[in-house]
Amino acid sequence: MAACNACSEALVFRPDDDGDDIEQGGAVEVPDDLELPCGCHFHWQCLLDEAATIALSLKCPNCETYLPSNDAGPSATSPLSPSPEAAILAQYKNEGGFQPDLDILPAITEEAYLNSHPEARPARAFQTMCSEGDVDGIVELLAAVDGDNESVISVIQYQDPLSGMKSGLHMAIEQGQVEVTMLLLWLSSTVPSNSFPEPARRVAEASGVGRIPVGPDQDIRVLKDSTGQTAKDVARRLEGPWLGYLDGGLL
User: So which domain of life are we looking at (predicted)?
Assistant: First the structure.
């Protein structure tokens, strides 16, 4: 059986020794085999452990083969932001099956960025929840943020350099997450409380998260992505369910 080129262990994932599978008659092994274009094999986590080196060199950490499937290298603006045309196509076998031609460069780039900016991990988790409509997760994450209101605001208003400087509000609107959008406006905008639709106000109040006093310059609605668009601009482009909120002045 092939072994990981980083740790020399078999290319499988085993549950912890105290897992239920062991108690019921022995550990269950599932594949965890990531094959790079050069033919080197890694566990997924072992490759992520080398993310910073790979993101800068775009080479295999084992054999130093150049990995992208084209000639596009890192962008001129940031060594950790590869050009949009770059891709590293790997073959991955895991418990979910076989994933051919999986572009792993976005995951490598993200992990390299987070290794350099560990303070951004909660904020990026927050943005994922905004995209997925996970209101409960958002509430729990914000409750766990250490510090004062400014610390909470910094998470709510985080703009992701790996996603075109979008805020959580941009992402929620793009994905049609109305409840999350109303919660973000409740938490971090100057919209008067009595201007929120009754269902939106009930959701916000039921979350147990109170409104955070913000000034006009801290209003989440003024944030612009890398193209200069505010969340309102995104809503206006998408129309659909957002027209009523635009007409009502919430966005």
Answer: Eukaryota
Domain extent for 71: 12-114
Cβ neighbours of residue 155 under 8 Å, at least 6 residues apart? Answer: 122, 123, 126, 141, 142, 145
* Residue 63 one-letter amino acid: C
Report the amino acid identity of residue 206: A
DSSP 189: S
Counting residues of the chain whose pLDDT is more than 70, the rounded percentage is 88
SS3 151: helix
Looking at the fold, whether 157 and 236 belong to one and the same domain comes out as: yes
Q: What are the beta bridge partners of residue 33? A: 93
Residues in Cβ contact with 223 at an 8 Å cutoff, skipping those fewer than 6 apart: 157, 159, 167, 169, 170, 230, 231
Residues 146 and 194 in one domain: yes
Of the three residues 114, 138, 167, the one that is the final residue of a domain is 114
Q: Confirm whether pTM is higher than 0.70.
A: no
Distance CA 135, CA 170 (A): 16
pLDDT for 241: 84
**Domain identity same for 179 and 110:** no
22, pLDDT greater than 70:
no
108 C-beta neighbours (distance < 10 Å), count: 23
Q: Where among 63, 92, 114 does a domain terminate?
A: 114
- Whether residue 177 contacts residue 240, with contact meaning beta carbons closer than 8 Å, is answered with no
Cα-based distances in Å from 124 to 37, 104, 136, 166, 171: 29, 18, 16, 11, 11
How many structural domains is the chain composed of?
A: 2
